[in-house]
Amino acid sequence: MCGIVGLYLKNPALEARLGELFEPMLIAMTDRGPDSAGFAIYGDEVAEQSIKLTLRHPDTEFDWEDLAEQAKTGLSASLEWFQNANVAVFKLAADESAARQWFAEHAPDVLILSIGRSIEILKEVGLPVEIAERFSLASMQGTHIIGHTRMATESAVTMEGSHPFSTGMDLCLVHNGSLSNHNRLREALRREGISFETENDSEVAAGYLTWRLRQGDTLKQALESALQDLDGFFTFTIGTRNGFAVIRDPIACKPAVLAETEDYVAMASEYQALTSLPGIEKARVWEPEPATVYAWERQGQ
Amino acid sequence: MKTVDLSKTSVRELNQALHDQAQTCTEREWQVLQPAGKHNLVCGLDQNLSIDIQGHAGYYCAGMNKKAHVVVHGNVGQGVAENMMSGSVRVKGDASQSAGATAHGGLLVIEGNAAARCGISMKGVDIVVQGNVGHMSCFMGQAGTLVVCGDAGDALGDSLYEVHIYVKGQVKSLGADCVEKEMRDEHLQELAALLNRAGVNEDPAQFRRYGSARELYNFKVDNAAAY
């Protein structure tokens, strides 16, 4: 089943309250996905030549400070970091491939949940309310956020199999539905140099978009290609560094509702998840059409 | 009039209170506040009640309705008035997919748009949509009337039986075995009466009629022996 939710702020004055506004949306979708939950938040952007990594270690006592010191020397880069439960965010003046290679060699137990200039992904097995509390979601700030509550179908209930999935810089995707051609497509994408961490179908959709964007597609073009090449049921919400998009397959069995005011655009599997938003009574609320790309992007960034 | 606030009362309590009216009716008029997109509101009613839902409702709102008259002052999720037997349901906003699915009777009016599969497998209900309907609307529709004042999506009336479909706007495509048919006087009268019942101000002469060509396998008597 699964629930998906997204909140994209148009009014910068609300950025300090992004987590607080989003937390009840995620928790409202518990009925649709009680086995795991996660979210990708965009904000606190690093400078152009820098990257931000969200890193996870299963041990809450893991010595991040030691790893940060090693990474600083190993990558000869300036580094700032902070810890949030069993996850740490490293901000580095380095490039993506060098960082991936260094962590793979020197910290094989550490999983990279996301890399980008703005994105941080946090996800775990458990009820949405537990995940929100563990990572102090309510106090987070940012420009946009997308989240997922999972009821697993195509792969096991694990942290790795939970959403959002990120396979490229600042790009992430949450999915309600199931894909039928993910095995063959995963093989084809591996040959194109896209790497996958799991056997999950939704990760393939994220990988597909990463590949299309690398080929020079705009986000809209990549999503239109996805309509041709992905076989199965899906409502996707996609986050990029400065944007937010929603798309449903042509059959559109999987639900979605959008709401827009002067202050925000919000997306959810069900209207129930939007009722806590300020001004929702006056919002334009509608169901996105099948096979139609809805995208919002910040200009001038 | 009795008012139920769903921020203080559960959906189950509301529905039970409404079901209790079936035996002995003590309150005809009901108002539901703070529906907040909750599912299964005012389902399975069996009494001549008048209910106003003030806000957006979730899935299967007014499902299995018998006799009651329900007005939703907002949008509804999928399956509004599914399997309705009689009475009426009016949605002031939009409806998600499968509005009026399998409904046997009564009147469903959607003042906004209805999404995909509106009237799927309908069995006698009359549905009037003032906006557009999505793809596969009236799929396998068996009896009743579907009126669309806006446009219809792909595959309208696929595998249709005996439903009368009237569309004022564009039809993106017709489904298997669905064809445009002549609009005769009896159809103009039927449509005028239904628009009148629905309180919709449209000119019947501007609509086109669609129905089953009755060419599919199940219409051939020669195939009856296969069962």
UniProtKB/TrEMBL annotation, chain A:
Q: Which residues form a coiled coil?
A: none
A Pfam family matched in the record:
GATase_6
As one GO molecular function, the record gives: glycosyltransferase activity
The reply on keyword tRNA-binding is: no
At the top level, the lineage of the source is Bacteria
- Which E.C. number(s) belong to this protein? 2.4.2.-
Could you tell me which PROSITE patterns the record lists for this protein? GATASE_TYPE_2 (PS51278)
Into which EC class is this enzyme placed?
Answer: transferase
What InterPro entries has UniProt attached to this entry?
GATase_2_dom, Ntn_hydrolases_N
What parts of the sequence cross the membrane?
A: none
Sorted alphabetically, the keyword list is: Glutamine amidotransferase, Glycosyltransferase, Transferase
Q: Where is the Glutamine amidotransferase type-2 domain?
A: 2-299
Q: By its UniProt entry, which PANTHER family does this protein fall under? A: AMIDOPHOSPHORIBOSYLTRANSFERASE
Can you say what this protein is called? Glutamine amidotransferase protein GlxB
Species per Swiss-Prot/TrEMBL record = Nitrincola lacisaponensis
From TrEMBL, chain B:
Q: What is its EC number?
A: 1.4.1.13
Q: Which residues form a coiled coil?
A: none
Q: Which GO terms describe its molecular function?
A: glutamate synthase (NADPH) activity
Q: What are the entry keywords?
A: Oxidoreductase
Q: What is this protein called?
A: Glutamate synthase [NADPH] putative GlxC chain
